Amino acid sequence: MENTLRPADKRDVKRALLALLLLCVPLLTLSAWRIMYAEQYYKLYHEHLYHYPDDTLEDISYLESALKADFANPLYALAPIKDTTEWERYRDLFSMHVNLKLIYCFLTIGSKYDKMTAFFFNYPWKRQNLESLDKAEQAYKTASGYWQKAKEWSAKAWAMRDTHLDHIEEWETENFRVETGDLDYQAIIDAQLARVAKVRADFQKMDKNTY
User: Fold this and answer.
1) Which of 45, 94, 108, 137 is deepest in the core (most CB within 10 A)?
2) What mean pLDDT, rounded, does the chain reach?
């Protein structure tokens, strides 16, 4: 029998078959992809070679969801857990680490909107530059809030520093750096906010006579 279907008709048939196959996928298979636990959200986070704002915002969404979600059963933790003491230290370190990652993300977002210097020839775009500085300032202030949370979790983890978790030594190193003052995001954030204030003041002084 001769195939009388036109190319457009064949495409419609293929679409219909694909839709039917999708409907036949068992619901249990689909639910297997459901993201529920803190560790699952954290695994979705990944640093990008090029920090485009949309990519950074996506990472922020994953990390914030990780902080809000329940932890998985200790069997599925990101480090081997043998007892309740290790389980408690693991959760404290995880929460501290995720807050530190969020600080990094918001500093990255802030840098995208920041203006290092108010050049006189930027006057025609004074309003846009001031709006951009406002966004940078908000990102830095948000990072400051996460720093306070990171320090709280760090202090809890530090109180249990005699309990060592081999598989997350990086987090333990972060804990050590926070508690010894080697890692001080507040100093970095304060410096950024002070510079934003200065650059904003320089832009606000601009008028048609300075251009």
Assistant:
1) 94
2) 87
